[in-house]
Design a protein that fits this description.
MFS_trans_sf; Growth Hormone, Chain: A; globular; mainly alpha
């Protein structure tokens, strides 16, 4: 096999699957454990949201360091820290869970950026969207079996199996990760140049301040770069729906007759995986904005949120239908926007700017737990999911309006060409 399905890339996808296996279990265990200990939805949401909120903060820095030192060096350091974080879950309570989530968030910022930038740099343009889609697919694969494992561990009441699973995942991830190869490493000449630059750098840290200033200028493009700001806003709004489902479905499902949170999460993950496999070649990979495609994908997330919110009265069938729609939305939206940005962003700053975009996705998922937790405490889970649907509907309108403006611009250019003729 060649391209995105060659052996070096398959090894990276296996590493991705192992790395995210722990989170598929923790997404179920942490809310259930918090409820058992009497924690409010706000507290549970903060613990769940701390993971990706930390990831968001460190993501731009991760992109910058990976471009400077190469993905392999960064990968080996983060896998060590991730193993320590997983060990914390084996002997601590909610306070330790919070610290472990923060450490995991730091690791995930560097892990996802290292692999995605490595894939982007190593694959030709025509295979880029498939590579990103396969990476994202493998990050969701654990969601098929992880929730069932978590529910099984919880129902037995013996948390020693949970501790063993965290240790096993840490060991396997490290074994695969330390032997992986990602893209091209910096050339020796570049390393020599870096060493010379480091030697010439003033002892007062002027070079470090210059790098920090450069990162802050890049962050300003969240507002000034129309491509980045539009994609970031759409991803932020829709990710609130994704985050609210992850954080609170394990607690909401018992309110729905004959519904299971594990089955919901399994259906959602299975749909994500299936859609990524079957539709990966349909994801645009030409650098053109597809407003109707993006807007329609976001509307699927809106309908999914409404279905989940109504299922307390309508029943489990609508609940599971929401899982199908949300799975399709998750499968398509992220790789579509990431691939589009990989074409339209300036190459010199692409790593940092894509990091900022992914940080918007992380922030949205975090807000789905941190902000929607108090909303659920003040109202109900159903009302919370209706509020999420409103946010998603606003994002869909923005995506579709962008499509209309682009179409109008294209018509104006066509008229100008005809007039010149």
């Amino acid at each position: 096999m060649k391209g995105a399905l060659s052996w070096p890339f398959l090894r990276l996808y296996l590493l991705t699957l192992l790395y995210f296996s722990a989170n598929s279990i923790l997404n179920v265990i942490i809310p259930l454990k918090g409820e058992e200990l009497g924690a409010s939805n706000t507290t549970i949401g903060v613990i769940m949201g701390a993971y990706l909120l930390t990831t968001m903060v460190f993501r731009p820095w991760a992109g910058s360091l990976i471009q400077r030192y190469g993905p392999i060096t960064v990968l080996r350091v983060l896998l060590t820290v991730n193993a320590l974080a997983l060990l914390l879950y084996t002997f601590t309570g909610l306070e330790g869970y919070f610290l472990a989530r923060v450490l995991q968030g730091v690791c995930t910022a560097f892990f996802s950026m290292a692999l995605q930038l490595g894939i982007i740099d190593a694959l030709p343009d025509k295979d880029r969207s498939q590579g990103i889609s396969m990476y994202s697919l493998c990050s969701y694969l654990p969601g098929i079996f992880g929730p069932l494992l978590a529910i099984g561990m919880w129902q037995t009441g013996d948390m020693s199996a949970f501790a063993v699973s965290m240790i096993a995942i840490a060991v396997l991830t490290g074994a695969v990760g330390f032997t992986a190869r990602i893209g091209e490493q910096p050339a020796e000449a570049e390393k020599g140049s870096s060493r010379s630059d480091a030697a010439a750098e003033p002892p007062n840290g002027t070079g470090a301040r210059s790098q920090a200033a450069s990162m802050f200028r890049s962050m300003g493009q969240l507002a000034s770069n129309p491509h980045l700001s539009r994609c970031g806003l759409l991803m932020l709004s829709t990710s609130v729906i994704f985050g609210s489902v992850t954080a609170f479905v394990p607690l909401y499902a018992p309110e729905i007759g004959e519904a299971s949170a594990a089955v919901y999460l399994m259906i959602q993950a299975a749909v994500v995986v299936s859609a990524r496999l079957l539709l990966r070649s349909r994801i645009p990979s030409d650098g053109k904005w597809r407003g109707s495609f993006v807007g329609g994908t976001i509307l699927l997330a809106v309908f999914a949120s409404l279905a989940v919110g109504l299922s307390a009265n309508a029943g489990a069938l609508l609940f599971y239908a929401g899982a199908v729609m949300l799975g399709i939305a998750q499968a398509l939206l992220y790789p579509t926007l990431t691939t589009y940005l990989s074409f339209v962003l300036p190459k010199a700053e692409r790593g940092v700017l894509i990091g900022l975009f992914i940080a918007m996705a992380d922030l949205g998922v975090s807000l789905g737990g941190i902000v929607m937790g108090p909303v659920a405490d003040l109202t109900s889970y159903s009302a919370m999911y209706f509020f999420c649907a409103l946010l998603g509907a606003a994002a869909a309108v923005i995506a579709l309006r962008g499509h209309g403006r682009q179409a109008a611009a294209g018509s104006d250019k066509q008229v100008m060409r005809e007039d010149s003729v």
